[in-house]
Design brief:
- By secondary structure, the chain is of the alpha/beta class.
- The protein has one domain: Maf protein (Alpha-Beta Complex), CATH 3.90.950.
- Helix content is 28%, strand content 26%.
- It has a 7-stranded mixed β-sheet with strand order 2-1-3-4-5-6-7.
- Strand 1, helix 1 and strand 2 form a beta-alpha-beta unit.
Amino acid sequence: MTSVRSPRKLFLASGNPGKLREFQVLAAGHALDVQLLPGFADIPEFDENASTFAENAAGKALYYSRPCREMVFADDSGLVVPALRGAPGVLSARYAGPGARNEQRITKLLDELRNKTGAERAAYFVCVIAAAHEGRAVAIVSARVDGEILEAPLGAGGFGYDPVFFFPQLGKSFAELRPEEKNQFSHRGKAFRRLMEALE
């Protein structure tokens, strides 16, 4: 009689339901049960003040894994626009100030790029994912995807800067992609597949 292996728990150190949904779809079929870290909202927030995505991701994973007996992973991801000297970069979520909505961040980005054309609108998404167990680093992986910033939002899907990130390979904004398309090509999808390979 063969025993059925129960899925390995993997807790996401985040309160972002959009990220959780993407990771759960990516984990399907890999014997991984991805859930939000229990009690995440009650843990004092980790101060993401490092200057690189890798340092922020690793710091978060180590910090939130200490009180947890299961594997914890955290990502730091964002949009990089070379013409804006790398902004929004690690400040992507706080680009328009603390508590700003996605629409406000997008409006600020488009304002900053108002007079820029062609190659000046080139941009890329970066995702770094770190996994840790009881305060010890287990894996750190990264990925990026290149595109350009549109002059106005397109599409109703995704989250964050997806409506203004145009992906030339498919001729659509990230917010116009079907979930399976986005998971195949996105920075987060590629990085999470690398994480699963590292853990397996």
